[in-house]
Description:
CATH topology of the largest domain in chain A: Rossmann fold
Number of strands of chain A: 9
Mean pLDDT of chain A: 97
CATH class of the largest domain in chain A: Alpha Beta
Distance between the termini of chain A: 35 Å
Helix content of chain A: 40-55%
Oligomer: homodimer
Number of helices of chain A: 11
Amino acid sequence: xxxxxxxxxxxxxxxxxxxxxxxxxxxxxxxxxxxxxxxxxxxxxxxxxxxxxxxxxxxxxxxxxxxxxxxxxxxxxxxxxxxxxxxxxxxxxxxxxxxxxxxxxxxxxxxxxxxxxxxxxxxxxxxxxxxxxxxxxxxxxxxxxxxxxxxxxxxxxxxxxxxxxxxxxxxxxxxxxxxxxxxxxxxxxxxxxxxxxxxxxxxxxxxxxxxxxxxxxxxxxxxxxxxxxxxxxxxxxxxxxxxxxxxxxxxxxxxxxxxxxxxxxxxxxxxxxxxxxxxxxxxxxxxxxxxxxxxxxxxxxxxxxxxxxxxxxxxxxxxxxxxxx
Amino acid sequence: xxxxxxxxxxxxxxxxxxxxxxxxxxxxxxxxxxxxxxxxxxxxxxxxxxxxxxxxxxxxxxxxxxxxxxxxxxxxxxxxxxxxxxxxxxxxxxxxxxxxxxxxxxxxxxxxxxxxxxxxxxxxxxxxxxxxxxxxxxxxxxxxxxxxxxxxxxxxxxxxxxxxxxxxxxxxxxxxxxxxxxxxxxxxxxxxxxxxxxxxxxxxxxxxxxxxxxxxxxxxxxxxxxxxxxxxxxxxxxxxxxxxxxxxxxxxxxxxxxxxxxxxxxxxxxxxxxxxxxxxxxxxxxxxxxxxxxxxxxxxxxxxxxxxxxxxxxxxxxxxxxxxx
Lengths: 325, 325
């Protein structure tokens, strides 16, 4: 099986005869959509020529961009390779002449037959963080840029990949006690907000929709720390709980401003600080893109403690896989 | 003062000597961010070459795309022209050599001095819907496309603009009674979700963050109807209220699927149906982009009724304009 670098190289060679790669679309649902958020922000910030966008799969299927065609690369992700909307997104993309890269954990899945290249990723308790779907998604973006326009921080990015696993595993140890305290304090709450910005916004989104809403049936919303002051902050009081990410990198100032406000007018605030958790050892030119992997792996320490104390296992569902929808 | 078409024409002429317009960025905060959502989806779907993105202003300021420069157009919006992050976004854009179009209601405002072209829009109770900021934002996108790559549905779009005012005003009459019933039924709720998709997602986002959270201090989140089945739908029960938009156009199937689920497993559901409200008289090729203007003007009928019955005026704030932040 090819890796991201090799798959991208083959696509770029194949696309030469039709004028090269001009657009890249990232497509997935829910947690997979969130996992591609860093790739979206990477392309949006770093690419000078390549067009890009991130779509929830069914939006892509029903509202596909008119540029989708022979000059496009579509990167899809489905954990078990069986999400119908994502399979359909891959199918229509290939039909339109795009090259399709599929990320999936289960290599023997329906998604695979609609992809030109399949990339696997690590998953589970002892996974290598550097091989997770978020990083593999990012690598498709980094390689697409590097192998077309060039990416000036390519070496720094690869160096970051070499560091992320240790940083994350140390951080998970570091938060164990505070995760337990969080679970004790928040176990009876009916609403918990998450907050974040930049490339890490997707981690806050995932925690909100896939954990609090889906796995704990707690009301939730994900608030962008820059948007907070333009509406949502009026909800702040001494009772309402917020989990806020302080990213390391470009948008930290946004997160710090929101935290300062929360510390003044709120009371029940849980802070995930990427700097305190050691992310700053990754070069400043690329650190933005590693926040997601850190937060997204630290949250489960909190989630496990919360599920246990609430006696609401993270696997409990009332609708998913149980009813028709 | 120039209109959108004239301003875009001048910019395109000016940019000829540096290689033309290659990127367009939409930048605003909160309700203004939401108002640009249709323009974002328009560019994302219709443009084959032009790069585009939508940013919350402070994210743009701290995390500006590297492509920002002489080939860029930046369209900013601030209702009173005094939002510091948006002013700063305009300032750095001009400094980078971009052409800046500023949308504002107050023409004598700090924003104006950082813009190359200023566009005004209609506002207030009897405004012409065709002149609102959402439509003016869309027009900058439509004109940028038409005057560069060309836009095959340009005439249909202009025809839609000629129809939207009457459709919206009829719809506002049409929902008066149900808005009152909504207010009666939902007045004591602590959480209300909004849902939408496609170009209209921004209207659901605005209702969630600017009305329920900001103006009524009701907990809320905006759920994409395509994402609903990948996490959020587990929150559904007979008690939890949802306001769901059924858009007319490409993504209606997503909204209908979510509504079908809600009708089966939920109970407290308020439906805003663009088809029922007469939006289908606008041509199918462009109707997607007019859903926002419809929903965004129908919501206030509900909001007024809700605020009155809750005795919580829409102007009430505890932080905005009152404390430092």
